[in-house]
Design goal:
Length: 124
Amino acid sequence: MTVTEINPVGNFETWSQKMMSEVAKGRFSDEIGQLLFENEEIRLWEIVLEPGERKPFRYHFNNFSCTYFTDGLLVVRNINGKVILKRFDKGNHYFFEYQSVIVSDVENIGENAVKIALVEEKIS
């Protein structure tokens, strides 16, 4: 997987008015896709994004890992202004260790549908 920063923290010049309004409203979910399984320790989510499809801003409170079931190209925007481009191949894995609350969205800017399994560790 390749992660490229395409916009630094604090720079909102490239953000659309729609994105800025969404952030200003502050109505963020903690859902990222379809919940497939949940117990006391984990949540298993399936994320499917068609080309051009976007999941709105959501809270990230917990450690999580992603497994990519397709090749893909995603843009991830953080409400602090940082925007990254993620290019990944089928079978890639990614682990995120929680350090502070993050609010971000995700958008498929590739030509093909993207399918991701996300395992979220629940805070005890």
